[in-house]
Write a structure and sequence with these properties.
single chain; 327 residues; alpha+beta; 10 helices
Length: 327
């Protein structure tokens, strides 16, 4: 029998990412990434308090760089409603925000309790993200040129037509050289691999795939979105220091395991929301007017595969009187 529509929690958590985006966007280009991050964290924590969930933060950003954060294990929500694992990144791309660069976003993903991969002491993972058409076309162990050939075939393109999102980091020099040698084009960004992964699976975007090593927490958050967008993330934990590797070994984490969308998020009943902070082609940034603040968000319900792009006009005169969030 067809199921009756259930409550779409994504429409609730988007209010949280909107609040975080509006609070942090005041710090756009002001050179203080921690201040912008802290504003988003406080807004997100306050906004969660009214949500009817029993949430536990599994992915809380900040540990690897001592930034402000919602802590792993922190309880969020008002204690009523479903028990959920929660993944947050109040400002994904704090440097992008601090220096006024595009594609800083605020993101939240939620899934049933026990279904979200817990990275423990792992901070970094190697990722390959592709859209729905290239599902099952890639192998994390295959050479770069082979994966690009298979992606191009799945998309009905030539390799020379592909655009690959890569973080512009020293660790990616060989990867960038290999992509160029294969003939594909590259979009280099200094930060923000959640945005890069979303662009790789967004049918509106010119990005065809994402490659390279980024944050493990960001990979789990990304999987929440990809569950609904129909693409695939293939990943492997990739410690970037001896200390990180040793901590993972002590925690009995297998760094050789290949991780996929379905191992990072085991349930299809998950939700994702992202709101743009700084302007970009993917999500528009926060715009402040005389009486209204405008936000642009992506809202995903994985179970139905529904993507919504939400443009919201917030009446700041009324909101400032009602909300505990400092905008």
């Amino acid at each position: 029998m067809p199921e009756a529509p259930e409550k779409n929690l994504a429409m609730d958590i988007v209010r949280i990412t909107e609040a975080a985006a509006m609070a942090s966007a005041r710090w756009l280009g002001r050179g203080d990434k921690n201040a912008g991050d802290l504003a988003a964290v406080e807004a997100m924590r306050n906004s969660f308090s009214s949500l009817n969930i029993k949430g536990t933060v599994v992915i809380g950003e900040g540990e690897k760089d001592n930034a402000p954060m919602l802590a792993n294990g922190e309880k969020v929500g008002n204690g009523q409603g479903p028990a959920l694992d929660v993944a947050v990144d109040p400002v994904e791309g704090t440097n992008l925000l601090a220096y006024g660069r595009p594609n800083a976003i605020s993101v939240v993903g939620v899934a049933p309790a026990g279904s979200m991969f817990n990275p423990g002491p792992s901070f970094y993972m190697r990722k390959l993200v592709v859209p729905h058409e290239a599902y099952n076309a890639v192998d994390i162990d295959a050479p770069v040129h082979v994966n690009l050939k298979h992606i191009a075939k799945a998309l009905g393109k030539d390799v020379e037509d592909l655009v690959v999102f890569v973080l512009d980091k020293p660790r990616h020099k060989e990867l960038i050289d290999a992509i160029r040698a294969a003939g594909a084009r590259i979009q280099l960004q200094t930060d923000g691999d959640v945005a890069g992964a979303l662009m790789a699976t967004d049918p509106r975007s010119e990005v065809d795939c994402m490659m390279g090593t980024g944050g493990t927490p960001e990979g789990v958050i990304t999987a929440c979105a990809i569950k609904g967008m129909g693409g695939e993330i293939v990943a492997r934990l990739d410690p970037q220091s001896y200390v990180e590797k040793e901590a993972m070994e002590e925690a009995n984490i297998d760094i050789r395991e290949t991780l996929t969308t379905n191992t990072l998020i085991k349930s299809d009943d998950c939700f994702f929301a992202a709101t743009g902070i700084s302007g970009g082609d993917f999500l528009h940034g926060v715009r402040y007017g005389a009486h209204h603040t405008v936000t642009h968000s992506l809202v995903i319900r994985a179970k139905t595969g529904t993507l919504r792009y939400v443009e919201s006009y917030h009446n700041m005169d009324k909101l400032s009187k009602l909300s505990a969030v400092r905008y």
